[in-house]
Amino acid sequence: MLGKYPLDIHLHGLTDTAEDCSIDTIQNHVIPLFKRHFNLDNELSLTIISRGYPPNGGGHVRVVIPTVRKFPAINLPDKGYIKRVRGVAAGSMLSTSILNTLKDTVKSQLLEYLPDVWIHSDYYKGQKSGLSPGYSLSLLAETTTGALISYDVCHQGSTPQELGASAVKALLD
User: Fold this and answer.
1) Number of domains the chain is built from
2) How far is 154 from 173, CA to CA, in rounded Å?
3) Is residue 72 part of a domain?
């Protein structure tokens, strides 16, 4: 972010893997954090053009980064207690019923603990679907102190029910 000129970058490859933070977490957690703390309201952006799942990828993401002359100090609050959960169940080149099953599993388990749960489906088809089928889940919990806790999971031979249950358990741990 520190530099002489603003950047407009197009990245190609994988957007969701089991090893890395998903593009949804960067878009819904990291970008808002940078915007809030570095006063980059309309300048910093990340756009998902297509999804890319293993093994062949095919994802395309556009990132626009302005120049920042200096970084102010950031004070992160205590964790606090989780008050709401937002999520994205994303997929491409598969049946939408898989995403619905994943969403229902996660929502039913989280509603046992919290009243405010919302999971969004993000389904890509056609040219926006990348080169391999796949699905993933990104959960973002907001706490009473304003802290954000995120958890990502990408399918690797597991059923939507198993994936959703493991994601809920990991987020609440």
Assistant:
1) 2
2) 18
3) no
Shared domain for 46 and 121, answered yes or no, is no
72 — phi, psi (to 5°)? -75, 160
Provide block-wise average pLDDT over 10 residues at a time, the chain (173 residues). 80 86 87 80 84 86 84 76 92 89 94 92 76 89 88 86 91 86
The pLDDT value given to residue 89: 92
Q: Which of 48, 64, 160, 158 is nearest to 104 (CA)?
A: 160
2 occurs within a structural domain: no
Share of the chain above pLDDT 70, in %: 95
Mark whether 59 and 99 lie in a shared domain: no
Domain extent at residue 117: 82-172
**Interacting residues of 136 by C-beta distance below 8 A, sequence separation 6+:** 16, 22, 24, 53, 89, 90, 91, 152, 153, 154, 155
CATH number for 149: 3.30.360.20
Question: Where are any strands of DSSP class E within the chain?
Answer: 7-13, 45-50, 59-65, 82-92, 117-124, 134-143, 148-154
